[in-house]
Structures are given as structure tokens and as C-alpha cells.
Amino acid sequence: MDDLAHTLFWKTWWSWSRPGKEPYTWVDIVCRDFNFLEAASWFVFAILVLLRWRRNRSSSLELWYALAFLLFGVSDLIEAWVLTSWLLWWKGVNLVALYLLRRSVMRKFYPDAKLI
Q1: How far is the first Cα of the chain from the last one, in angstroms, to the nearest whole number?
Q2: Which of 23, 39, 88, 114 is the most buried (most CB within 10 A)?
Q3: Closest CA to 97 of 66, 55, 52
Q4: CA gap 54, 65 in Å, rounded
């Protein structure tokens, strides 16, 4: 049971720091750099949602939507250095929140928008 709990919540799947000064592989570098790029993209989405909220002031729900994008970007910054089980759970919960917030915001305030 302890092994299951460890795997579900505390296991480190990948880490940027290597034990014993083991050299970095190209996969390490690509994975880290991709996470930095991905985090920047989520931050841009958060800014775009904030700008839309500022322009329309439709709902404070959009502020939560922007925060969810921001938190997902932060999770990618963490993932650039270490990937753990708890981070995967955080990302999963955050994805569900992003989906539900987007669906709610788009249905209530932008029903004519082409993107679902």
C-alpha cells in the first residue's frame, strides 16, 4: 500500500538534476526547453483572457479562467526541472478546471463565438 501511495503522489518520474554528475542527454534538454516554451504559451493565454475581461468586464469567472492558465504555466515551469506524481495530479485537475471554465465562459458570455 505504501508503494502505491508513493507512486500515486510522491514518485519523481524525471528530474533535471542528475545524480553523480551524469551528463545531460538531448532528451533532457529538449524536454526542459519545451516546458519553458509551453509555460510561455500558457502565460500568453492568461494575458489574452485578462485583456478580454478588461475590455468586456463580463464576469469575474474570466479572472478565474486567467488564473487557471497562469497556474498551468507555473506547473510547466516546475515540470522543466522535475516531474512528480503530485505535479501530474495538479496538471490534471488544472486541465479539468480549464475545460469547465472555458465551457462556462464561452456559453454564458460569447455564445456566438466560433470556437467551442
Answers
A1: 42
A2: 39
A3: 66
A4: 13
CA distance 83 to 63: 28
Compute CA distances 115 → 21, 50, 57, 109, whole Å. 48, 18, 20, 13
pLDDT in tens, 65-104: 999 999 999 999 999 888 899 999 999 999 999 999 988 9
Instruction: Return d(Cα 106, Cα 96) in angstroms, integer.
Output: 15
pTM recorded for the entire structure:
0.81
Nearest-angstrom CA–CA distance, 88 and 72: 11
